[in-house]
Amino acid sequence: MNTSDNTPTPRGRRRVAAGAALAAGVLVALSVPSTATAAEGDTTIDIVDINDFHGRIESEGTAADKAAGAAKLASVVQSYREANPNTIFASVGDNVGASTFTSLIQNDSPTIDALNAMDLDVSAIGNHELDKGQDDLTGRIEDRAEWPYISANIVEEGTTDPAFTPYEVIERGGVRVGFIGATTEDLIPGLVSPGGVEGLAMAPIVSQVNRYADQLTDGDAANGEADVLVLLVHEGATTANIADATGTGAFGKITSGVSSRVAAIVSAHTHATYDHEIAGPDGTLRPVIQTGSYGVNYGHLKLTVGADKTLTSIESEVKSVNAETTVPADLTSTNAVADIVSSAKAVADVEGAKKLGEITGDFRRAVQSDGTTENRGGESNLGNSIAEVQRAATERNGSQVAFMNPGGLRTDMLYASSGAGDPDGTVTYKEAALVQPFANTLVTEDMTGAQIKAALEQQWQPDGLERPFLKLGVSNGFAYTYDPSKGRGERITSMSLDGETIAPTDTLKVTVNSFLSTGGDNFAAFATGSNVADSGQVDLQAQVDYFAAQTTPVAPPTDQRAVGVTVTPTPEGGFRPGDEITVDLSSLIFSSDDPEEAGTVSISAGDTELATADIDPTVVDKTDEQGRATLSFAVPGAATDANPLTALGRAFGTTVLAAAVTPTATADEPLVVTLPNGQTVTLAVSIPIAAAVDPADPTDPSEPTTPGAGDGGDGTGAVGVDTDGDGVVDGAAPVDAAGALAYTGGDLAVPAIAAGVLLLAGLVALVLVRRKRAQRDETVPTD
């Protein structure tokens, strides 16, 4: 590549010889050649691209579910080269990082080697290339890679000078194709550790790309190096909807703002799949594509360039690697890659047998009623444990709570040994990798209490799905209650973190994996957070680091992070002595627990135990309702409705006590459920319980109040004192010695009940008004 004197010479710049030796025999893949016929003198150039490969060198599953793999991808690339020697193989970044175990365990060396064997020509810098910092990119990665990494908008802090190679020009058939690289502007400070990119900053993609587009194609300037320009930008639309690739969003500004000198935009980062035509600033349509991720699909640009080096046409497509069936005539590249993958798998098998950590018991997924089939609708100690691991891994990013999708847990982590040389309680690398084989990265985001509640409500899936409920694992300290009798969107009744109630307007830093962060498994609420940042940490690596940090074996969690609660509706004015209350509970145990050890559950108010019940451990398939119990009891204290005035008071939402009726000092106490493991659940419901007597106070508040005693007998008009000598104790209804309602003068021709009504209506000051209890905020399970 030729550069002018005013082109910066960034650190970490690398160059490789363009092109590769091709076999003399050419076998044309059926899907490769274009039906368009080039005019005499025209040159056709094929650009094959991938994005977000993330070390997926092994084929996974079937062709219907990922499959592909580096060897299959190598065959596709080689087929294009055999069909057209003027072929360029490009990547749009994130070749490494977030890799599966086979590549991760060797620090992604197998992935770099495989791409070298495929003769990758050029790659944009993705955010994962900087997971371990800039020195790691310019050292470990670039030292091993035989292709140049490019980015025009990662700059030296305080300047617009690129810190890395901004572009690469590759010549094929006498045509110079200029590739300009760019990296998501969210890279710093959101997507990588700040310490690893110290001294770097992000410049706007559009202005930096346009700067080099002008430089590379302006014949009046000193350069004029490229005949055709292609942008490799590690940024993209979030979905295949063209509206997400246009408009005023970050990617829409790129597609509309990047100079029309750029003939095509090849994107990445969002793992979306699309093939659009979008107008540039001058109105000319150009391809805008992305291939998804993991090398399962590939992109293809077919450029036709005239004899005058002017682009005459460009075609684009995104195709499945799995769908390609033609075998190249020259299998040198394919075989070399297959050997690299095979060797990497052998190393992974050895490394996978190494000890990662120790556990004290089984970490299991939930099960159905048959005791063996996985139940993604049940809370599990494995799901909660993994959520805590991921919260701990992103604690430096400010994470307060983490959620884990049950489908991301593919097997149990068992205490019993899994093979020779693996003693009980030992967890190997391979065992941990099998639990989480997807190599998702951990994403942090700010979510309000209302958004978190919405996510929890989405555990109840849309109607008609095979799995009607998906239980999220949650990290330590977070808990919630739900009412299974309620309807969609109304079931979550409370949430708390470390015992403190979470209000709808509170904001928490939440961690989820990259699958959930985009709304996977119908958890759309996780795609609504703000300040979204990919930590760059792979879920498996988080598990590795977690075990490494422990000084003792890790114990499975025993507390329930969610409990179902349905309570008798609170009457107007609150519960009173004698009222019957029923509390239905569910999700009190893990379905994987021994049902013989389900135990009992109790409910209390203050120091008063109100009821106990055995827990029914029967599993309800596809839900989290196992561990059920019903607790029924009467509110302590004598019912007072025999007193007609008291009955009237209840009708009016008040409590009326005659002076001769012994008043008992009470306090509203919340109902507290205690599980067999000592964990408690404080409900929103409160009931009156006799207040404890202060031994330092000589007056027992439960003793009858006598006239004249009052407030120390000082005649100040306190409750229980007849201060004006009218025979009526002030602050109470008039009484006679027997405690009956006293008449106020001549005989009344109406029943006594009417007198009570008049008293209530006209002598408000002569009754004790029991306040209407405000329902307390409900809290959640605590240890």
Automatic annotation (TrEMBL):
Protein name: Bifunctional metallophosphatase/5'-nucleotidase
Matches recorded under PROSITE patterns: TAT
Leader sequence segment: 1-38
Compositionally skewed regions (Gly residues) per UniProt: 709-718
Classification via SUPFAM superfamilies: 5'-nucleotidase (syn. UDP-sugar hydrolase), C-terminal domain, Metallo-dependent phosphatases
Transmembrane segments: 748-769
Keywords: Membrane, Signal, Transmembrane, Transmembrane helix
Region annotation (Disordered) ranges: 693-727
Highest rank taxon of the organism: Bacteria
Domain 5'-Nucleotidase C-terminal, chain residue ranges per copy: 372-527
UniProt cross-references to InterPro entries, sorted A to Z: 5'-Nucleotdase_C, 5'-Nucleotdase_C_sf, 5_nucleotidase/apyrase, Metallo-depent_PP-like, TAT_signal
